[in-house]
Structures are given as structure tokens and as C-alpha cells.
From TrEMBL:
The chain crosses the membrane at residues 44-64, 76-95, 101-120, 127-143, 149-170, 182-203, 215-234, 241-261, 267-285. It comes from the Bacteria. It holds the Pfam family EamA. This is EamA family transporter. Keywords: Membrane, Transmembrane, Transmembrane helix. The keyword Transmembrane helix applies. Residues 11-143, 153-283 form the EamA domain. The keyword Magnesium does not apply.
Length: 293
């Protein structure tokens, strides 16, 4: 932790809240596009626009240092896990409401804790597994495997959450050797390059009108802006301080899902969302105390 991180927690929280609002807006636009166009086209637009904006913003400031990484192979793998996360979530948007998708993605911190034990050798006190178990009970309330709520969207978003958990583990490992801007650049590069190869198979000439192109462009602006705010937040305050506030994205997603798509979670889904949030906050605070111990 650097000195500045200890002195500006309020600023860091405000940056984080802004980033989460932009993430929720980005997901809202992605869901709208995915209702009319193939997933591959939406994901391509999201990454290609993000990549161009990243180059414009960071290349003049950092020059060729932006491309320098000590672990290029791991950066590619990390980029692919983020791409898998995005693709799975956009696919889930075609089948599920915005708020439920967002809530299920929040199982990722529980998965990260499990993976950190296996791959990073982190020690976890036995009592810290209780909120993980409780959190997965919230997932069952939303997904309801034996009921009508369970569909391909649930499978897709849970696969995306698994990819996102691996992405976070790789981010932890790479943070020790590469700068944040380098990680941001390679994530955008890998996603854009991969989708440029895949998107011709799904492209329908003339399918995108002016409004669609503007929406696709906004994905890049929102994606780059939200990631920049996230980086600024982590510079201003430690991750353990910010983690509990990440669940504000679920509030934004619920509000936008209701206003834009007319979707409001039912009682079972709301209960599951609250359980996931409560369990996630406990995991976040236990992480803080574990690091202090």
C-alpha cells in the first residue's frame, strides 16, 4: 500500500462509485444491443472501441513503455479470461434481466477466495468459508435450478463469473510485475484482436444503423472511463476499503433494468441478491482483517 492510498479513502470511494455507475450503464447498452444483434458483434464493438480509446489516451503519455510486460504470455491469458467474461455476460443478457445477471456475477469474489487458496497459497480461516456457503445459497434463490428461472443465461453468467475469478487471480499475480496501464492495454488488445478475427463470421452488412454505431462507440468510452476511474480509486484507497462498495453496481443495475427494460426482480431474486451482497461484504471485511493479521 502506498502512502497516498492511506490518505484519500473518501476520494477513492467516490471514484469507485462513479466507475460502478458507468459499468452498469455499459451493461445496459450492451443488453440493448444484444437484443438486436449477435453477441460477437456487441463484444467486438465493446473491445475495439475500448482499444482505440486506450491507445489515444495512454500512448502519448507512456510511449512504447505501454507495451512492455515481463509476462506477455500471462497477459494474453488474462485478456482471454476477461474476453470470456464479457462474452458470457452479454450472452446472458439475451436471456435474463440486467439485475439478476449482475447479481450472479458477484459470486466471483467467493470463487477468487477459493482459487487464491489453491493457486496463490493464501491461508483462509475455517470461519471465512461460512459466508461463501451462504452466498451460494443466494445464487440458488436467483437461479432456482429446478424451476423456470434456470436457463442458458444462468449457465452463461456463472461461466462468466468463473472466468472473471480467474481474471482477478491473474491480475493479482501480474500487479507485482506490470503497471496497471499495461494491464489495461493488453486486456483491450487481446479482446480487440480476437474479436476482429471472429466477428466476420457473424457480421450482417447493413444491420447496424447510426444509432447502433453510436451505442457501440459509447461502449468504448464507458469501458475506458470506468476502468480509468477504477485505477484512480485503487490509487486513492486500498482495495480492502473499496471492496464492500462494489455492490453499489447491483443497485445501479436494478434501477436501470427497471427504467430501461421494465424488469424488476421478484421476491425470490431480491432475497438472493441481498444474501449475495451481505455475504460478499462479510468476505470483503474478512479479507481486510486477514491481511492485518
Amino acid at each position: 500500500m502506498n502512502a497516498s492510498a492511506a490518505h484519500h479513502p473518501v476520494r477513492g470511494i467516490l471514484y469507485m462509485m462513479g466507475a460502478l455507475a458507468l459499468f452498469a450503464l455499459l451493461d445496459t447498452i450492451s443488453k440493448s444491443l444484444a437484443s438486436r444483434h449477435p453477441v460477437a458483434v456487441v463484444v467486438w464493438g465493446r473491445y475495439f472501441a475500448h482499444f482505440l480509446i486506450t491507445l489515444v489516451v495512454f500512448l502519448p503519455r507512456h510511449g512504447t513503455a505501454l507495451f512492455k510486460t515481463r509476462r506477455p504470455g500471462l497477459q494474453v491469458v488474462r485478456g482471454m479470461t476477461l474476453l470470456g467474461t464479457t462474452g458470457a455476460i452479454v450472452m446472458a443478457f439475451q436471456h435474463m434481466p440486467l439485475a439478476e445477471v449482475t447479481a450472479l456475477v458477484f459470486v466471483a469474489p467467493f470463487l477468487v477466495m477459493m482459487l487464491a487458496v489453491v493457486f496463490l497459497g493464501e491461508k483462509v480461516a475455517p470461519w471465512r468459508w461460512l459466508p461463501v456457503v451462504v452466498g451460494f445459497s443466494g445464487v440458488l434463490l436467483i437461479a432456482r435450478p429446478s424451476g423456470s428461472a434456470f436457463n442458458v443465461g444462468v449457465v452463461s453468467v456463472l461461466a462468466g463469473a468463473c472466468c472473471y475469478a480467474v481474471y482477478q487471480i491473474l491480475t493479482r499475480k501480474l500487479s507485482a510485475v506490470d503497471r496497471s496501464v499495461t494491464q489495461l492495454f493488453y486486456a483491450a488488445l487481446v479482446g480487440a484482436a480476437t474479436m476482429c478475427v471472429l466477428v466476420p463470421w457473424f457480421w450482417v452488412p447493413g444491420a447496424l444503423d447510426l444509432r447502433d454505431w453510436l451505442m457501440i462507440g459509447s461502449l468504448g468510452v464507458l469501458g475506458a472511463s470506468s476502468h480509468l476511474l477504477m485505477i484512480m480509486a485503487l490509487r486513492a484507497a486500498p482495495a480492502t476499503t473499496l471492496s464492500p462498495f462494489t455492490y453499489a453496481q447491483l443497485v445501479w443495475a436494478t434501477l436501470l433494468g427497471w427504467l430501461v427494460f421494465g424488469d424488476f426482480p421478484g421476491s425470490m431474486s431480491l432475497a438472493g441478491m441481498l444474501i449475495i451482497v451481505a455475504s460478499g461484504v462479510v468476505v470483503a471485511y474478512s479479507e481486510r482483517f486477514n491481511r492485518k493479521a
